[in-house]
Amino acid sequence: MRAAYSGLIALFALCFSSAQAQDAAPRWSLAIHGGAGVIERASLTPEQDAAYRAALQGALDAGSAVLKSGGSALDAVQAAVQVMEDDPLFNAGRGAVFTAAGRNELDAAVMNGSDLTAGSVAGLTTTRHPVAAARAVMERSPHVMLIGPGADAFAASVGLEQVDPAFFFTERRWQGLVKALTEAGQPIPERPAGAPLPGAQAEIAPPLNEKKFGTVGAVALDSQGRLAAATSTGGMTAKRWGRVGDVPIIGAGTYASNPDGCAVSATGDGEYFIRATVARDICARIAGGAATQAAGQAEIADADRLGGKGGVIVMGLDGRPAFAMSTSGMYRGAVSSTDTARVAIYADEP
Known about the structure:
The protein has helices at residues 2-21, 46-68, 73-85, 130-140, 148-157, 171-184, 270-275, 278-287, 292-306; strands at 29-38, 106-112, 117-124, 145-147, 211-213, 216-221, 227-233, 254-257, 262-268, 310-316, 321-325, 329-336, 342-346.
C-alpha cells in the first residue's frame, strides 16, 4: 500500500512539474492544505467531496485577493488560514477536535521569511482566530510562543476577537470524541456548556469514517519576493495532559526563510514531525540545492521511517508550489499570477 501511495505521489509531482515547466515564473503564488490522512474516494460522498473543494477554493480566493492587490505573503497566508479556521469542515478553529476533557484547544504559528520573525500559540480556548494570535505574538510581543490562558489574555489585550468556547463546537467532532473515548474505555465528559442540543446542527452528511490529520496551512510568495507560512490546528482527538503537536513548534510544522528560499506548512503525526524537524529540514535541503518537490518528498520519507504519516506544502522563491505526502490524500490547492486556481483531495490527482 505504501509503495502504491509513493507511486501516485511521484506521478502527481511529475504531472504538476511538467505542466508548469512551460510557464514563466509567477509574480505571486499561494498554496494551501486542509489536512492529510486516509482520505479515499470511497470515504467521501459526492456532497462531501464538493463541500471540501468549495471550502478550499474559498481559502484560495481570500489569500489570492491579497496577493493580486500587491499585499504581503504574510497577509495572504493569514487570510487563507482564517477562512479555514471559520469552516467546520476543518480541524482548526470552529470545527476543531476535542480533548479528552471535552475542550477545544487550538494551536497556530506564522513565520515571515523575509526577516525570519515568527510567532506561535498553543492551547487557546477563546480566541476566534488562532493564526491572528500567532501573528500578534510575532509583531506585538517580545516573544515567539505563548500558551494557554496567557495566550488568550494576550490576544484579548491586543484587540483580537474573543468568543465563548462553545463557538468552536461541532457535533461531528463531539461524536468523534465520544467514539474515541468509548473505544479506549475512558469516561465521556459532560457536553460543553453552551453547546447546541444534539441534532441541532446541520451536517452535510454523517461524520466521516476517516483518519485525518486535520491541520490547515498556507504558504505564499508575494510580488516583492517575500515568503511566508502559516499553520493552524485543533490537534488530535482525545488528547490529554496539555498535549501540543508540531504546528506551533517553529521548524517542525511551520517555517519560512527567504535566505533558504522556502516556506513550509505541515500536517501529520505531530510527535514524529517534531522529532524530524520536518519544516526546517526541508528548507535546509532547498538551501543545499534540492528542488522543492524533492526536498518535501525526502523529508516526508524520513518522518515516515520514524513512524509518522502526513504531508507538507512547500513554496520556493520561483513561486512553484510542491506537495508531498505519505497518505492516500491531502486536502490542498494552489493559485498564482500565471496559473488558475485548482484544488485536489486524493493523492493521484494532478
